[in-house]
Amino acid sequence: MGIIWSQIFPPPPTLTEVNLPSQDGKVFIVTGGYSGVGFHICRILYRVGGTVYLAGRSEEKALEAIAKIKSLCTPTPPEGNIIFLPLSLDDLTSIKPAVKRFVAAESRLDVLFNNAGISSPPRGTSPQGHDLQFATNCLGPHLFTQLLLPILRHTAGATPVASVRVIWTASIVVDAFALETGIDLAELLQKDAEKSRNYLNTKIGNWFLADALANQIDKHHAP
């Protein structure tokens, strides 16, 4: 209960948009930047001079979010940049083209925010036949991250230790409702599985993917 309580009422943060230093020269990708946490991450990084790629499926929604971000803040000189990156995390065939497009435009990536996620969608499966929540929240972000590892490693080799990061947005539901055994893989294979249970499984999956990535990468050049 203590862990859950601390997430509902977290302690005051030590780093906020008020004291965040200039991010000039740094490059970020934020998935799910149309609204919520992702939107404000994009806004904060843009304001302090970062180059931000807002990755998502809908160009219309992305451009609306970008216009709103620019209207809300006066960037600290030098002005940042915010760019739409087409990406459909539920469709694995869209991942590699998005990565190719990004690396053709940029020579570095400082932070990847795996923030996008869905909960209880009306449609049941992805184009590849996976549970839609599992595909969007786990499979797509995992492939996206793996394909971006070369540029993350390259950036890490030329920057201070631990300044390059991959961040996964998790959920309080993991602490509140997770099984002691973790993910029940059988539930993900059931076509009539309860959507709320599958959402929980995908958020546990985010924890596992973050841990697996930490074990995978070189600890001396860790994104």
From TrEMBL:
Keywords carried by this UniProt record: Oxidoreductase
GO function term, MF aspect, one: oxidoreductase activity
InterPro entries tied to this protein: NAD(P)-bd_dom_sf, SDR_fam
The family this protein is said to belong to: Belongs to the short-chain dehydrogenases/reductases (SDR) family.
Protein name: Short-chain dehydrogenase/reductase SDR
Organism: Penicillium roqueforti (strain FM164)
Taxonomic path: Eukaryota, Fungi, Dikarya, Ascomycota, Pezizomycotina
